[in-house]
Structures are given as C-alpha cells and as structure tokens.
Design brief:
The chain is mostly helical. Helix content is 73%, strand content 0%. The chain is built from 9 helices and no strands. The termini are far apart.
Length: 188
C-alpha cells in the first residue's frame, strides 16, 4: 500500500511550466530550483522529492514535450511528412532560439539530459522513418536512399535555420523540404 499523500498532478504541470519559463529567461545554466519552486508556488522540497537535480527537472520537461507534436501516420506519406515537418517548424518557431540552443548545450554536458533528448528523438525518428519507408514502397522516394538519412534531411535543416542562419521556419519552407525529398506532387 502506498504511503503518504498521492501526488497532485496539477503541481507537476505548474512546476514544468515554471521550469520552461525559467529556462527561457536564464537558460540551462541560469535555471534555479529555488526560482522554479517560487514561480510554481510550491516548496523546494516538493521539487527535490520529484526531481533530485536540475538535470532531472529538465529531463521531465523534455519528456513532457513528447506529447506536443502528435504524429499519427495515415495512408498519405506526403501529407504525413508535410504535417510533421510543419509541426516541428511551428514548435521551433514558438520556442525561443536560446532555449533550443541551451538544451542542446545541456544535452552535450549532462548525460541524463542527453539520454532524454536522444530518447525523445529516437521515438520520433522511428515513426517518421516508417513513413519514409512507406513513401519508398509507394515509389515517392528513391529506393536506394536510407529512410533514416532522408529523415535527417527533412529535420536537420530546421535546426540549421533556427540555430545558424536565423532564417524563418515558415510552412512554405516545410513544404519545400518535403518536396526536396519526395519531389513535386504530381497533378492528378
């Protein structure tokens, strides 16, 4: 039989929202458990019971992001890939560039953060790779190219634009990326 009070799921939501705000404000290095607790209106001990370190809190935040880009493949690989690349681009556009850069830097330094980021993208990568493989079976994509490499070619440019060139991540750009992999849509 479990001991103590059951966890309040509303607290987790408030803490993760506060952590996201603090990350946006000060980056990973500036993230303070004390300020997160204060912003969320909870005791520090509540945070430390659930997330014993800053890295664990960021891992929980990254994990919560998994649900923010839903992906349910259909029978139309072109539509699926366009929708997914557009959703990723929109999510990146809504996220401060410094936060993405800080999370990438934290993943390079913190093994738990790195593991969480890799797990997040491995799941997504497998799903998208399956869609690309279906597109290959339908003759939409060259059969000799690895589906995993094609996925990298779809998603990598989004991060390049966000972190390196600063060019916009528009829906038109997302469609252009998909066309670059699948070719132009044929008239029916």
């Amino acid at each position: 039989m479990p001991r103590g009070r059951p966890r309040d799921s509303a607290i987790e939501g408030k803490v993760l929202a506060a952590a996201a705000e603090e990350l946006q404000r000060g980056g990973y290095d500036g993230l303070s458990i004390d300020r997160v607790a204060e912003r969320a209106g909870v005791a520090k001990t509540t945070l430390y019971r659930r997330w014993p370190s800053k890295a664990e809190l960021v891992v929980a935040l990254i994990t919560s992001l998994r649900e923010e880009i839903p992906f349910e493949p259909s029978d139309d690989p072109r539509r699926d890939l366009t929708a997914l690349v557009s959703a990723i681009a929109a999510g990146l556009t809504e996220t401060p560039t410094t936060l993405v850069a800080d999370l990438a830097a934290a993943a390079a330094r913190e093994p738990r953060v790195s593991e969480s980021v890799r797990t997040l993208w491995a799941e997504r990568h497998r799903a998208v790779t399956a869609v690309v493989a279906k597109a290959q079976e339908a003759g939409l994509v060259l059969g000799h190219v690895s589906p995993a490499v094609l996925v990298d070619q779809l998603v990598g440019p989004l991060y390049y634009r966000l972190l390196v060139t600063g060019e916009p991540l528009s829906p038109d750009y997302a469609r252009t990326l998909v066309r670059s992999v699948l070719g132009p849509e044929e008239s029916r």
